[in-house]
Structures are given as structure tokens and as C-alpha cells.
Amino acid sequence: MPQSLVPPVTLSVVTPMYNEREAVDHFVGRLRPVLDALDVAYEVVAVDDGSTDATVSRLLQLRADWAELRIVSLRRNVGHQTALRAGLRAARGDYVISIDADLQDPPEVIGEMLAKALTEKVDVVYGVRSDRSTDTAFKRNTAGLYYWMMRRLVGPWVSDQAGDFRLMSRAVVDVLNELAEPRPVYRLVVPSLGFASAEVPYVREERVAGNTKYPLSRMIRLTFDSVTGFSAAPLKIATWLGLLSFLLCVVLIVTGLVAWGTGGVVPGWTSLYIAVLLLGGVQLICLGLLGEYVGRIYMATQSRPPFLVSFDTATTAPDSVESLDAVTVVADTRPAA
Question: What is the pTM of this model?
Fold first, then answer.
């Protein structure tokens, strides 16, 4: 459809999905009545992040009865934040809401978020968790530690109870789409931009179906991306570790010289063994921290697209999408850095 003929959209709801076949029907069943009741032109951009189950096929079935449902299918799994990035690039609304399909963030709050943005003239409305009792104690404690660290590394503007459930104006989305970061962490990027914001509290619910898509390994990866993407503090830590190891070496050298001068040298391997292990460990830690930054620089210099779109139902004929035989390939050709 030519750009001039595309109907205007007031609200876009972006939903990254990865193997969410069990949750799709529950999610659509709660989201659609909420959006229909808003009485505004809207679209739902469901970004399939390379699912290996029947998520895409079920979305296509639901789309036959819901014209506002738009499916953007990526060629492979690229991770939650990059899938969200693809959805933001595709969204056409004056306001864009990001929400996960597991229903831990209730769609019923969307109307309140949009109303607050319109009445208070703010560009960002954060969904803030007022109750996380449905999360495990481990999840709550590790999340608390993550946000405590981010507030000290990134800045005090990072909320300790706001995730990726938020509303953003077109101005904010346009800025995000222009960023050249290879792996942006939007829960940190958005508040760092300084746009006028407000908050809407909500009670975090249990996952409606399926398993979490954020196991411990991905949480650790998110932490590394957050730290290395927003702060050079790890490099400073490496510097201090190197300085402390140097001072320890000086102490050991002085101690050895004093022992040699007084004739109290006792043959042994313990002190040498401990010194070698300590220095070797510090050096490996420093190399690892440097490697994280060098790796990000390397990825940026490659200028590879962060994702490739297999098809987008907004531009691909329905019969072609249903067969998945002749789809329009849309590549994000923007350099990663």
C-alpha cells in the first residue's frame, strides 16, 4: 500500500514473541477488548523472534479475524531487546506501547497510560510494578540488585520497578530509531534521554502460560549489555585491580628483601604459589573486561544489520504470507554503529 494511502494510527502496541504459542490466545483475548474500547485507530505489531513452535501460524489465524493485528516475522532469533527494536522500527502510531505476551504486565493499564500521556502532555509513561509478589524471591532479589547497580552506574533517573512496559510518543520512538547502538537496553536508554515522563502503577501478575524467556543466562547477558553499554566503570575497576596487584607485589618484594637481608629466608612454594595465582587471576579479570568492550567495538565496525525481517503482513499479500513461499524480505540496512 502506498505511504499516502496508509490510514493514520494513533496507537501502536509492540509485542516481541518467542515460542509463545501457549500464551497467544490468552494475550489476544485480553488485549483486543482493551484496545477496541479506546475508540482510537490502533495496530498491534506482533514481532516473532524466530519462534520454533506454532506461534506464527496461530498469529496468522488470529489475524484473519482481527485486521489490526500486524505480524512482523524475523528470520532468526535475535533476542528480546533487538526484537523490540524491530517492532519500534515498524510501528506507525503517534504513541507506541511495548508489552510482553506473557500477561505479567496487564493490558488493562494501557488505557490509563494513554490518558495520562494525553492529559499531562508527557512523552513517556512508565508502567511501574507496585507489587511483585508473584515473582520468585530469587527473581525479586536479583532484579533489585540489577537496578541498584544500574542506578549507581547509569544515573538516579533509572526506576527500580520499571521494565519494558511503557508508552512512548512518536518523538521518543524516532530518537530511539536513530540510535546506532548495536545492542540497546531500552529500560536504560529511554530514561537517559530526558523526555518528560509519568508513571502508572500496576500489580505484576503470574505468567499466563509457557516458560519464562528470561532464564538466568539471559539475565546475566542483559546485565553485561547494560553495564558495558552505559558505563566505563568496569575499565576503571580493572585499573584499580591492576594498581592493587602492583602494590601487593611491592609489599611482597620488600618482604622478600627484608627476609633475605636478615638471613631468614625459608625455602617454600606457598607464597610464590599464592602470588602467581593472585596476579594471574587479576590479569584474566582485566582482560575479560577489556574484551567485553573490544567485542562491542568489533560488532559495531562490522555494520551488519541487527535483524532481518522475513515478512511483514502490512506489506505482504495475505496469500503469500499464508503459504510462506513468496515473502517480501525487508532488511534493516541501518549500520549498527
Answer: 0.70
CB distance 56 to 312 below 8 Å: no
Phi-psi group of 324: left, alpha or beta (phi > 0 → left; psi -120 to 50 → alpha; rest → beta):
left
What pLDDT, in 10s, does the model give residues 171-194? 999 999 998 777 788 888 888 888
Reference 323, options 47, 66, 56; nearest CA is 56
Residues in the chain predicted with pLDDT less than 50, given as ranges, are 4, 325-337
Which residue carries 559495531 as its cell?
Answer: 300
Rounded to an integer, what distance in angstroms lies between the CA atom of residue 25 and that of residue 54? 12
Indicate left, alpha or beta for 39 from its phi (over 0: left) and psi (-120 to 50: alpha).
Answer: left
Could you tell me the CATH superfamily of domain 9-213+305-331?
Spore Coat Polysaccharide Biosynthesis Protein SpsA; Chain A (3.90.550.10)
Can you tell me the distance from the alpha carbon of 46 to that of 19, in angstroms, rounded to the nearest whole number?
Answer: 12
3-state DSSP helix/strand/coil percent for the chain, to nearest 5? 50, 15, 35
**How distant, in Å, are the alpha carbons of 24, 25, 64, 65, 160 from that of 61?**
11, 11, 6, 8, 38
Q: How many CB atoms lie within 10 A of CB 240?
A: 11
Q: Is 242 left (phi over 0), alpha (psi -120 to 50) or beta?
A: alpha
Residue 124 parent element (H or E): strand 124-131
Return the CA Rg of the chain.
Answer: 25
Nearest residue to 183 via CA among 132, 131, 237, 229: 229
pLDDT digits (tens, 9 = 90+) for 52-62: 999 999 999 99
- Distance CA(25)–CA(152), nearest Å, equals 40
Distance CA 6, CA 27 (A): 26
